[in-house]
Specification:
The complex is a heterodimer of chains A (313) and B (296).
Chain A lengths: L1 H28 L4 H6 L5 H11 L5 H13 L13 H36 L4 H15 L2 H15 L15 H35 L2 H8 L4 H38 L5 H11 L2 H29 L6
Helix pairs in contact in A: 1-4, 1-12, 5-6, 5-8, 5-10, 5-12, 6-8, 7-8, 7-10, 8-10, 9-10, 10-11, 10-12, 11-12
Chain B lengths: L3 H6 L8 H12 L1 H18 L36 H36 L1 H15 L3 H11 L4 H27 L3 H8 L4 H37 L11 H8 L8 H28 L1 H6 L1
The chains are: A mainly alpha (313), B mainly alpha (296).
Chain lengths: 313, 296
């Protein structure tokens, strides 16, 4: 168990190192000279050369990579070219809407998808099952921003029930905060629900065919108890795995969702950075989101080891 | 693949090959796959025949006719520069289909080459797979955005960026398959008989990974179309003058409350096309992997 945890932590470090290397290489290949940008319009060649030396831009690739990693370890993601502010500072300013959106979506999606998958598996082959599966294929196919606009046009423009765009901080009242996140979460969560429903159903079908489920039914347990207590518990691992892997979908989707709903989050920061070619922000966000993804999946893997007594490493 | 053996071992009734029969049976069980195929074929025809489908120049600007609602003259209305949205959407099918197809082909090709090499050369395996793990940890849309930020906007660059983001998943699939296949007795027999490595790869390994690759390729195609639209939508994709579905929607972004048609028509076309690809993928998985089909 301890050995497994150590091994898993070690592989996480390696993966993060690869991610850092890829992101740094992208930074290294970035067109344009940051020194010239910092020096400004009236700088002489000598000025630019001096800044080059100051920033260590004329040093070899690996030395710069080492220096950059050292900065990372101290929480330095670089400086935005456009605003001249530290990237960490800009991200910290924008983190609340993104965390609100993704965490809310995650919770709602799991709460919807797992029961749907369980019911579809329990009623496999019926119209209910087919309906759920059809919705799942549809959920995979409608891109998040198309769905977002359909939701806005229906619930905000036509019915006028919910705000069209914008964000309210949770400190200004939970209801206002929630009202502004309902449509974004619905739009963002649909793909995720489709994915989790599908895997839950598949995993449940596997488990429902096992002998111990038949035993449980034969000894007269209520169908609900068999389904939840015996089947779902044992079907949980693939579901947990896909919840972890699916976080990548949430992150990619959040960038688009924030753009459509004008949420001032990290996704919006990224899109603005693309338009201004503010590379340090793009790379900082890439690194941050990849780290979140890796850590979530690490937590999922470790939770098996903790919660599933059958797993011995 | 072990599951492919029993079906292949049964002598083919009449003249139909077992593979074709399996496809036919799957389509029968999965009528929606047929629907997907028909929609996709229709979209391909629309893309190819775009100039003859009552379209005008999709880039022709006409300020006096801007932001017209859908009508008999302008089926999908006009945008803020007075361009005909119907023509733009029809031509937009070309971009989506080209990107989807090109990414599916390229990432499969690259994935097979890297996957075969890593699956066979132990020394490389550890290194390459750690790199792939790292690449897979960067959400694919973000990796594509970061790559697009380095180069200038063009359809070719979009294809390269999305391909690089999709390759690790194909590599992982191929490597996994190769690792199980190389332990099969018929491969051992081939080695014992002195068959050369290239021949083993071509005769024994490749034919057995075609089926899962075909299924994976379909899903890559669908996801690439969505990624292209996302990239264009947030301004990191195909150049704005090229009518792609993502671009048309990006232009409609600030106007969607008064001109929803700018978003809805390309959005529906994109969703329909991706849906068709996914339905086809599900049907193929049924046809080619009966074991998985029952579960999903």
């Amino acid at each position: 168990m301890i050995r497994y945890v150590i091994r898993r932590l070690f592989s996480t470090v390696i993966v993060m190192a690869v991610v850092a290397f890829v992101v740094f290489t992208l930074l290294y290949l970035t067109p344009g000279d940051p020194a010239a940008v910092i020096a400004g319009d009236i700088a002489t060649d000598a000025d630019i050369k001096r800044i080059h030396t100051q920033l260590g831009l004329d040093e070899p690739f690996l030395v710069r990579f080492g220096r950059w990693t050292w900065g990372l370890a101290h929480g330095d993601l670089g400086t935005s070219i456009f605003t001249n502010l530290p990237v960490t500072h800009l991200i910290a300013q924008r983190i609340e809407p993104t965390v609100s959106l993704t965490v809310l979506t995650l919770i709602v999606a799991i709460a919807v998808a797992v029961p749907l998958g369980v019911v579809a598996a329990a009623r496999a082959g019926t119209w209910l099952d087919r309906g759920v599966m059809a919705l799942s294929v549809l959920g995979f196919s409608v891109p998040v921003f198309v769905l977002a606009y359909i939701l806005i046009l229906t619930f905000s423009v036509q019915l006028d029930w919910l705000p069209v765009q914008g964000y309210r901080s949770i400190r200004d009242g939970v209801w206002e905060w929630l009202r502004h996140l309902i449509l974004p979460s619905l739009a963002l969560g649909t793909v995720y629900v489709a994915l989790i429903t599908r895997i839950t159903r598949a995993s449940m079908l596997d488990v429902l065919a096992q002998d111990y489920v038949r035993t449980a039914q034969a000894k007269g347990l209520a169908p609900r108890e068999v389904l939840i207590g015996h089947a779902l518990k044992n079907a949980a691992i693939p579901v947990m795995t896909i919840i972890g892997i699916g976080v990548a979908l949430l992150i990619s989707g959040a960038i688009v969702t924030e753009t459509v709903f004008a949420l001032p989050g990290i996704g919006r920061l990224t899109v603005d950075a693309i338009l201004r070619r503010d590379y340090p922000i793009i790379q900082g966000v890439t690194l941050l989101f990849s780290a979140v993804y890796v850590l979530v999946n690490l937590a999922v893997d470790l939770s098996y080891a903790l919660f599933d007594p059958r797993i011995r490493y | 693949m072990a599951t492919a053996l029993p079906a292949a071992a049964i002598p083919a009734a009449k003249s139909m090959s077992p593979m074709r029969r399996r496809f036919r049976d799957a389509f029968r069980r999965h009528p929606m796959a047929l629907v997907g195929g028909v929609i996709l074929l229709a979209m391909a025809l629309v893309a190819i025949l775009a100039p003859w489908l009552g379209t005008v120049d999709p880039e022709a600007v006409s300020p006096i006719r801007r932001l017209k609602p859908p009508s008999a003259a302008y089926w999908f209305g006009t945008d803020m520069l007075g361009r005909d949205v119907y023509s733009r959407v029809v031509y937009g099918a070309r971009v989506s289909l080209i990107v989807g197809l090109a990414v599916a082909l390229l990432s499969t090709l690259l994935g097979v080459v890297i996957g075969l090499v890593t699956g066979y050369i132990r020394a490389l395996d550890a290194v390459v797979m750690r790199v792939m793990d790292g690449l897979m940890s960067i959400p694919s849309v973000l990796l594509a955005i970061a790559l697009m930020a380095l180069t200038k906007a063009s359809v070719g660059n979009v294809i390269v960026a999305i391909t690089l983001a999709e390759v690790p998943r194909v590599v992982r699939l191929v490597r996994g398959l190769v690792l199980t296949l190389r332990e099969q007795t018929y491969v051992e027999a081939a080695i014992a008989a002195g068959t050369t490595l290239p021949r083993i790869l071509a005769r024994h390994i490749l034919p057995n990974i075609v089926a899962p690759l075909l299924v994976q390729g379909t899903y890559v195609c669908g996801s690439a179309m969505i990624t292209e639209a996302i990239l264009s939508f947030i301004g990191a994709g195909t150049p704005p003058n090229i009518p792609s579905w993502g671009n048309i929607m990006a232009e409609g972004r600030s106007l969607f409350q008064i001109a929803g048609n700018l978003i809805l028509f390309p959005g529906i076309c994109l969703s329909l096309t991706v849906l068709a690809v996914n339905l086809l993928g599900d049907g193929m998985r049924d046809a080619l992997d009966p074991r998985l089909a029952r579960r999903m």
